Amino acid sequence: MVTTATGGAEQTRPSGTPGPPVQTLGSREVFTALDAPARGLTSADAAARQARFGPNELPPARRRSLWRELAGQFTDLFAVVLLVASAITFLAYGLQEPREMGTLQLAVAIAGVVVLNAGIGFAQEYSAERTAESLQAMVPHTCRVLRNGERQELPARDLAPGDVIVLEAGDAVPADCRLVEAHEVSVNNAALTGESDAVARTCDPVPAGPVLEARNCLFMGTDVVAGSAKAVVFATGAATEFGGIFRLASSATRQKTPLQLQVASMARRVAGAALAIGAALFAVRLPAGQPFVETFVFSLGVMVALVPEGLPATLSVSLAIGVRRMARRHALVKQLLAVEALGSTTVVCTDKTGTLTQAEMTVVQAWVGGVRHPVSGVGYAPEGEVADPRSVGDLLRASALCSNARLLPPSADGGTFARSEHRGWRVLGDTTEGALLVAAAKAGLDRAAEEAAAPRVAEYPFDSVRKLMSTVHGGESGYHAYVKGAPQELLDRCTTIDWGGEQRPLNEEIRAAVIAANDELASQGLRVLASAWRPVSGPRPAQEEAESELTLLGLVGMLDPPRPEVSDAVAACRRAGIRIVMVTGDHPLTAEAVARRVGIVTGPAPTVVTGDRLDTLDDDALDRLLAVPGELLMCRVSPEHKMRVVTAFQRRGQVVAVTGDGANDAPALKHADIGVAMGASGTDVAREAAVMVLLDDSFASIAAAVRLGRSVYQNIRKFLIYLFSHNIAELVPILAATFAGFPLVPISAVQILAIDLGSDVLPALALGAEPPESDVMDRPPRSRRERLFSTAVMGRILFLGGIQALGVTAVFFWHIHASGIPYTDFTKHDLVYREAITMVQAGIVVSQFFNALAVRTDRQSVFRVGLLSNPWLLAAGGFGIALMAAISYLPPLQSLFGTAPLAASDWAILAAFGALLLAAEEARKWWLRRPRAARPKGEAR
């Protein structure tokens, strides 16, 4: 391979022949220099170049080896604390005279906790990374390229030097390339240069110099923000300018989310409390005559056992499970934080086309010269008829010529980049333009023949300000401009109209008839476009000339049917207290018709705000408008208006999710609390800016993601309650024995660690995978200021932990008193004492099994959701009880933990205490549900 260095870039010469930098060449010379046919590479040539230069993808980020990742688990703060504690305990064992095997066992147990948590953390991180990679692969990264003389949609990784690519506004540039055609092109190079302002690009040659400064080159990782273009690829993959930057960025340290930081901070505070409790126990027991080393080791063991060392890992597991569940519901979440934030969403600002509707536009009516012409057929298959096609021929011809979309037939053999959804007719490009092409085909027009007779020589791309698109075509009769766009904007630029085959002045009477026809079509829920034309002076007229003094050809009305699943999703969001605001560029009548069909509007008079009205409102007036409850539609708005609405809602303390698909939507997507991009129809720029991508573009996927986001936050609280409530049951018996003057402890440090290892970790993970409660969408959104450890959570921890503590404390002292042995005569080798501490440990394990069942729901009865609906939780709890039985009955474990066999009656008593805990929690839930019992049937319970 021969390359030409130009300021750091490598311009590939497939022929192996050196030459001048491509930016200095004319457009035609570029094809020769890069061995690139103007009609594009053939499939065989492209395959040969890909084999030579490799795929067009960036090298994978350098990963730490598995051993390094595993070793990194031992550098966590809690792991370091535990390792130091284990080392101190080993040292204490060496200093003891005589040496106590229990001290050695404690040291080993502490080390075991570290190893277990490191294994869980390593497995979770490894799984999360692989899951993220597989989910990212679900987002299509494609580009439009000329292959075999035809325009095709291919994976970006299949590009090779010499490929001719087609770019439009909203596209991400897939490789470094040289422009050979450019129509009002501007790009955002922020990802490469840090400059956020859009810069214009040209296809004209420029002087030699650094390639990054060449105004006729585009670079991988940048975005096309306006215009359309063709370009020839000269560098791919790691050879691109972005490739070098990517290698640096890929090694950056991953940041923790605020939720993870909050939990870690909370865990550190709990660790401090554990240290204080351990110190207090040491201070209380040492004056009571206990040996110094033994007292110190015991206090250290209790302190270590109370440290929530597995909490951050359990949190990450729960979030990762939420990500995978959302992916199964067609919602790809790119940041773990978004999973939790979804649960507190209060406002959803949603597009109409594609999100609420099926994004499969179909022209159903055409209006020409005061006459409506029905169009039959549904979808993109060019099957159907146009009433009186000769009368609407000029309208549909102009609309088809002024379009960049392409109608693709079904893939018979799968094709190079065929997916299952490509088995039918489909549109490559804008769906609205696709509908115009289908209507033209139904009228008998051959677009290829029309373009051959009148080839395009210039284009003024659509933008959200003028709401128009114009193309200029040449032919035997001269040059003509064809313009299509929003009827209101286009009508203001027309001076004549095609009426009955002749041009008439567009007087006030006819203008009123056009407006009435537009309103009637829009009131039927149709999206309306207008088309016009005019002769121009040459191949490149000024935009003002091309878009003024036009002749109106007529209107087309397109139907985009609502998605069938959206109505239920909208109803679920309304029950959940989420306000849905439609933000669309469509006509107010069209927007209201669709909003009523899907349930966003149910009242007689929704508030309808247009972009023009928004321009007249200052921030205070907009805040007052949004503060009024009720149904709200934003129509004829631009992406800038959308950004302003999102900001205004956030000023009012709302948590805002916003949908978008265009390049201009990127600021609003980034600024929103939850930016939601369209995966199927959205631009690369929008998908990059969003934190969630809808793989099916459906609003129902947003509602499903909110439901799962709420359940993730609930699950985090569930395992927090589960983990911390049993700490109370471990501490209270120790404190009771200390103040009652009992010389021994009701539960040893090794037993506490065994509970952490055998009874806590697996059930906590299973609670993190708990499916959503059936009424999770019947509750109001959670306040963004609400903390994990709220008053309600702390109250529930004390309630459940208090019941467990009373039960195991009562069991311990009942067993001791029943023996009739004075307190002072007990030793740790007495069978009665060993049975009593076994009862305490088993009591905590059994009650934790019932506790796990109790915390599965916040308000609903666990019997309503089904005891068997989370089999992993039952298996984890069963494992803990089985381990406890082994500790009680197996001699080697009896020796290790100082336990004794329990009778069947003992297990029955413990099971009764566990059942009492579950019954008490069920009674509490019943009391909370009681005020809602009087609600009408069908309302949230």
Structural class: alpha+beta
Largest sheet, if any?
9 strands, mixed
Let me know the number of strands.
28
Mean pLDDT: 83
**Low-confidence segments:** 1-10, 249-255, 413-422, 933-941
Give the strand content.
Answer: 15-25%
Helix % is 40-55%
Number of helices: 32
Shape: elongated
Radius of gyration from CA coordinates: 35 Å
Report how far the terminal alpha carbons are from each other. Answer: 70 Å
Give the topology, please:
Elements: E1 2-6, E2 9-13, H1 27-33, H2 43-53, H3 66-72, H4 77-95, H5 101-136, E3 142-147, E4 150-155, E5 164-168, E6 176-188, H6 190-193, E7 199-200, E8 217-218, E9 223-235, H7 241-249, H8 258-285, H9 292-306, H10 311-328, E10 331-333, H11 336-342, E11 347-350, E12 362-368, E13 371-374, H12 393-401, E14 406-408, E15 426-428, H13 431-442, H14 447-453, E16 456-460, E17 468-473, E18 479-485, H15 487-491, E19 494-499, E20 502-505, H16 508-523, E21 527-536, H17 543-546, E22 550-559, H18 566-575, E23 579-583, H19 588-598, E24 607-610, H20 611-616, H21 619-627, E25 632-635, H22 639-651, E26 656-660, H23 666-671, E27 674-678, H24 684-689, E28 692-694, H25 699-740, H26 749-768, H27 791-819, H28 831-854, H29 862-865, H30 871-889, H31 891-897, H32 904-929
Parallel strand pairs: 11-23, 11-26, 19-22, 23-25, 24-25, 26-27, 27-28
Antiparallel strand pairs: 1-2, 3-4, 3-5, 5-9, 6-7, 6-8, 6-9, 10-28, 12-13, 12-22, 14-15, 16-17, 17-18, 18-21, 19-20, 21-22
Helix pairs in contact: 4-5, 4-9, 5-10, 5-26, 8-9, 8-10, 9-26, 10-11, 10-25, 10-26, 11-25, 12-13, 16-19, 18-25, 21-22, 25-26, 25-27, 25-28, 26-28, 26-30, 27-28, 27-32, 28-30, 28-32, 30-31
